[in-house]
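Sorry to interrupt, but I need a hand with the structure work. Could you write out one complete protein record for me, on any chain you like? Just paste the record in under my message, thanks.

. . .
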Amino acid sequence: MLKKITAVILVLSVLMTTACSSKPFSLYDTPIKFNDPFSTEGEDMSFSDLKITEIDVEGLISSIDRMKELSEKEGSLEELKKLYKETYIGMDKISANYAVSNLLYDIDVQNDDLSKSCLEHESTYNRVYTLYDDAMKTLLNSSYADEMKKFLGEDIAALFDEEKVDIELITELSNEESRLTNEYTQLLATPVKVTIDGEEWDVNKLYEEMNSLTNDEYLSIYLELDKAFNKKALEIYIPLVELRKQIAKEFGFDNPSEYYYERYFNRDYTPEEAKFFHKNVKEHMVPVFNSLPRISHDAEIRSEDVLPKIAEILPLISKEMSDIFNEMTENGLCILEDDMTKSYDGGYTTSVNTYKRPLIYNAIYGNYRSITDTVHEFGHYCDYYLNGIYSPCYNSVCFDIAEVPSMGLEAIFYDYYDKIIEDCNDEKAHLIKYFLSSVIDGCYMDEAQQKIYSYEGELTADIVNDIFEETAKEYGKTDDFERYTWAYISHNFYSPFYYVSYAASSIASLEIWNISQTEGKEKAKEIYLKILSDGSFEYGYTESLKKNGLKGFTDADNLKNIAQSAKNEIDKLMTEK
């Protein structure tokens, strides 16, 4: 997952060849079209270097205000250029503080001081960014437009082409959004409690005493805990939905889903086109998925073995990726947390503008997903490292493609599981099933959210739960828990409409996996590395897949064939056990 991206990464211009491909090609042979004349070289960074930088925020705001003021005065070109350089550096630091404060808080979410710091830096970023955005739009619509566009570069200037908005209102709404999402983070880290027949339960006690309970007793208590969590989460979710509808409207979108698809996630397909994806998944993939057996994945992976096991496999895939991984681990830029009583229960890759470098945070749980989830984030890390662009306010990543370097790397690792886990048939089968479930869940979440965000009338807890439950049934999810468990999916709170990116990228990743099984893993690796080479900052989803010979979700027959191949492989693995 890409979380709270504040800018993005360093371009490598050196020619690289893969360790295992039959023919050499560059891991970065397509020049990024984006040009920022003021972007600086990245610096070496380790986790111990991360810190909050002192910034004269009011001084920066004064410079931004001065830049806006001079836009209306003659003879100010040279001072405007100087002010732009100053504000550029200041925005870099503001953005870096935002990223670092979030990371430090996620490592220790029970720390009130870090929570306060995180909110303060988010608030500062929201406030200063909206002022900066407004000043830049004013400048680039002034008599200095032509000269400043030459000075900034056309790519930077294009970032400020949108209509101006009400700065004070957007700042207020953004700050409230940050407050609500941080409240949700704290809710995730605090086990809810329920009292049943005079006895208090939370999830920790339930796990401790599960062997003394009947199955019905266990499920009954679990359901009550889900209901309790859902009730608290809805007190955050409904205000978030209403607030985000207002934000979308301020940016000129009557339909919030169109705002998130087009402006937020840079998709080259629309919510209406996604509805055909939903329909075809329900028709061609859900029945196959529901025919699959339950699959255990009991192999234990110790926390201290996660990074060494990944390091062992990467040279077999790409020497360059292995080198990037080794540099990352040597500098402590992959933070793995296994204590979810104090840390954020999730994973993401982010970046620090002032260093021009990415870093990983990932929660791990001691099973094979500790490997695959970390591999997933490392795919993001490589995309950032090889292809990303660092520039204040630049955030034009295509999220559907951004998830292919991550989920695609999980798919590539499939053929190396026997080097990681003994008797790994269950884990391999579970991984394939996990990919199918990512497609289904991504479409389910997207369809439910489209319904919720387009709902006319007052949203209530029952209406939201009804929509999630009814939509879940359409995707073959029929147990009592579905009415409530959507609230544990943090993307619904942090990044609405993100989840369909997992569905779209899972289709591409399953195609890569299927090519590995039918045409050989060298061919699959070549396709994967070319997609990684292209990166997620220049091409759209359908554009990138077409360029690299994949069909994606727009082809119904492709969905049908992938589902059947996955079922055949799982059946084979279960038979061979």
